[in-house]
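Q: Hi! First time doing this. I have a protein sequence and I read that you can turn it into a structure. Is that right? Here it is:
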Amino acid sequence: MVTPTEFAFRTGWALWRLGWEAQIVMAYRMAGLVGAVPLPPGETSRMVDEKVKAFTDAAIDGSWALASGKSLDVATRAAMIPVQRRVSSNKRRLTRR
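A: Yes, that's right. Below is the predicted 3D structure, encoded as structure tokens:
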């Protein structure tokens, strides 16, 4: 069983990392939209399309974890994984230049 402190620390740290990487991705994309840096072809439509997939996967994974009797900590992390994976992938791809 995870204590409330462990839950807050683990989840808080994961959310902090997700927020930090999301800000980097948003900064690169905004710079690309105004022409300061080149964006890969199709990046503007990709920004919208990927969110639908990531958040749908997050909802499904979190729901399945709860439905199968997992703890709130496990379900929260399961829901965050698809979004974190997508954001990390975007950060790597956009900062590779």
